Amino acid sequence: MTVRRILNAQPKRTTTTIAPDATIAQVIRSPEFEDTGALVVSGDGTTVEGIISERDIVLGLRRIGPELLSKPVRDLMTSKVLTCAPDDRAAGIMALMVSQHVRQLPVVADGKLVGMVSVHDLLHLRLEEVRSEAEAMQRYITGSV
Questions:
Q1: Measured between alpha carbons, how far is residue 66 from residues 24, 38, 63, 71, 93 in Å?
Q2: Mean pLDDT estimate for the chain
């Protein structure tokens, strides 16, 4: 299974980005941030400049305090962003995300953002695979092909 399969199964194909000069208050008011817990930071909507996550904001609150809400995203974003490609194997991406403690990963093709996958997406895909394998094995054992 590849990341492309996850992207194709997602209901909406657009990935919301936020500009680096937007405020943290704008981030937390974003419905997409509420749904995913992270937004890709991009000035042009296609180039990944960073990612801002719930973890970034919580750490910023601890360090800066409530005035954090008026700070620009660029001050808090993670700028060294792990990404993947649509043809990457889902199992490898899951291992990378677990080892690096990230919950969302931007998907980039030809230098442009094409989507985002989450640990939840990968676990859901794996669960589907396991169910399918179990059903096939049951049909094989019972002879009901």
A1: 11, 20, 10, 10, 35
A2: 91
